[in-house]
Amino acid sequence: MKKILSKLKLKDFIGFFIWPLVLFVTFFFVYNRFVTLYFEDVENRGTTAACDIVDSFRPYLDQIDDTLKTASATVEYMMSNGTSDEEILQYITYETEKLGIVSATGSRGIFGVFGGTFMDGVEWNPHPGYDPTKRPWYQVAVKNKGEYGFAGPYFNNRTNENVVTACKLLDDGVSVIAFAIDFDTFERMTTDLVEYDKNRSILIMSEDGHIYSHSNDFEIGDDYAQSDDPFIKALFDGFTASKNSTFTINKGNGVKDNYIVSYRRIMYDMYVVTVTNLDEELSKLNLIVGLFALSFIIVFVVMFILNLTALSKELKFKESVDNLRSLANIYVAMHKIDLEDDSFSAILCMDYKVSQLVSEAGKKASEMLSHAIEGIVDERSKEDMLKFVDLSTIRERLKTKDTITEEFLNYEHIWNRARFVVVDRDKNSVPVYVIFASEIIDDEKRARDRFKYLAETDQLTGINNRGSGEAKIRDLLMRNVGGMFILFDADKFKYVNDNFGHDVGDEVLIGIAEKMLHTFREKDVIMRLGGDEFAAYIPGVFHEEEGRQILYRLMSAIYDMKIPKMENHKISISIGAAFYFSTDSFSFEELYSRADSCTYESKKITGSAVTFYHRKDEEVHE
User: Fold this and answer.
1) DSSP state of 617
2) Is residue 153 reached through a cis peptide bond, with omega within 30 degrees of 0 on the bond before it?
3) What would the pLDDT profile of 347-389 be if each residue is shown by its tens digit?
4) Which residues contact 11 (CB under 8 A, 6 or more apart)?
5) Class of the 45-302 domain?
6) Whether the Cβ atoms of residue 219 and residue 205 lie closer than 8 Å to each other
7) Phi-psi region of 82 (alpha: psi -120 to 50; beta: other; left: phi over 0)
8) Which residues in 53-74 are b (16+ Cβ under 10 Å) and which e?
9) Sheet of 431-440: strands edge to edge?
10) CA dist 429 → 260, 398, 423, 433 (Å)
11) pTM
12) Among 226, 197, 186, which residue's Cα sits nearest to residue 210?
């Protein structure tokens, strides 16, 4: 004891003995401030829950949206060209059959009324007297006057279950295309998060107050705009009047408690709304505060005894830490880790959330690191970071190195760099003590990414330029990833520039790139070669029939582009396509040459056309 006290400076003495007493005295003064921060945290959690539900809905609904929009454009094109009912039915049946993955998540295919005839993509024959124009999906589509929207939930006569339907009125004013979605999927996405917080209700609501889904099943299908319930009326009035995405409902005028409401738009006129009971949340806080005060007294007595022992070890460590203090200013958090007994201690922590996560974790360093990563790292970086902080492999990774690093994206979408630094090794040079530190590198990382983007992106259209696009395709060919390669250019593009101006020509090029982004998948490589020439590589497509379906959608989308300054002038394209199989070994230049020769053949045809390269006998086993 005497030896330890002799090494203590005045500030150490004050920190070790006096701070618990000061903290105890100031505790009640801090409480009010803490309540404010707690309310802010409640608001953030409500907002986060709304955003999480939007994030869970969007990938699912985006796929349905893309399918519906593509089918809508194609059917309108077919109807405008006098395509028969049988061919239209074949098309929506084909598109429905392709929705195997979507169907597994709850969709029920494409159907609708086209030119006065009801058609269903799964070939369902309705009962006699069935009037599709009386169904909710038809009436909502007509009401929306050409805007995409949702109808439901309602009972589906074909599946004998409740569904929600995305629908749209077509240009002729009487035809409607629709896409039915399993209601259980909506309900599951809405209620999954409620299990974790009983004081929060989550609902999916239309702009005019119709409830599609609710964590309380009894309110599904209600019309909040017509409700006389004081709380529901206050909720809907706040939703329609609030200029912010978060607002409060105060107690009084028939409302029993105080609430905070957050909402976010999902798609079309559909919103997710989270409602949190502030009074219930505060009751939990008061309980926590009481337990904290009791725990503080117990911990104070115990820590006074334990810290005498810990301080001896800490003083030794301070000698090593002093050499790192000059670096500490650049780090958000630094922790010392003892690899022998899997323990840790904080050197500094400037992030409140990190500090909270560390305090929640156990005494083991491995548990603390895993818990912190789960709480602060974005899902896209989480897997790599969990491997990086795995202490079971850290000694081997640092055997011949003094430091290792890993960059990651945190929960606020800010780039950070994590680092392990060896502080001490045993006689066999095996690390014993390490420092785990984290620093913010967002400006540096985004600058690097920006330079890379500028180097790889066509500045006019925003898609890959020739250099980056060809490099990505060559890499796929090197890894034997087969697929379809296409080349195309805009027919008579010089006419557009000469008659409408180069600014309009640029709008055409930008529009073509946008249609390519909507037509092709994220994993497909699309690029602008220069001028009005474009190319794409679509992995996994090996047959003309499949390729032709994709390219017809592209040609149709480009033909339907609306550029006001061009009046009624339409853009057609000439496409050349060639396949590369995983067993092939010829070069990218040869693949390019084959597609290019087909492009030349397509130019001989008036309007948009696609020509596929047919291999000669000696080319079959290349």
Assistant:
1) G
2) yes
3) 888 877 888 888 877 778 888 888 888 888 999 888 999 999 9
4) none
5) alpha beta
6) no
7) left
8) bbebbeebbeebbebbbbbbbb
9) 343-349, 333-338, 431-440, 415-425, 403-409
10) 57, 10, 11, 11
11) 0.41
12) 226
d(CA 346, CA 360): 14
In the chain, which residues have pLDDT < 70? 1-21, 23-25, 27-28, 31, 99-108, 157-159, 191-197, 284, 296, 299-301, 303-329, 449, 453, 617-622
Q: Please give the Cα distance from 183 to 162 (Å, whole number).
A: 6
Sort strands 609-612 and 573-580 into parallel, antiparallel or unpaired.
parallel
In single-letter form, the type of residue at position 307 comes to N
Cβ count near 555 (within 10 Å): 23
Domains 45-302 and 329-445 belong to one CATH topology: yes
Specify the residue for token string 């926590």: 288
Strand order in 270-277's β-sheet? 211-214, 200-206, 270-277, 259-267, 246-249
Report the C-alpha gap between 474 and 483 in whole angstroms. Answer: 12
Query: Where are the chain's structural domains?
Result: 45-302, 329-445, 457-619
Distance CA 529, CA 521 (A): 19
Residue (of 143, 218, 224, 215) closest to 176 by Cα position = 143
* CATH architecture assignment, domain 329-445: 2-Layer Sandwich (3.30)
Q: Is 13 exposed, middle or buried (0-12, 13-18, 19+ CB in 10 A)?
A: exposed
Element (H, E) at 162: strand 161-169
Partnered with residue 176 across adjacent β-strands are: 113, 169
CA distance 599 to 602: 5
- Which CATH number does the domain 457-619 belong to among 3.30.70.270, 1.10.8.60, 3.40.50.300, 3.40.630.30? 3.30.70.270
Dist. CA 539–CA 543, nearest whole Å: 12
pLDDT score at 170:
93
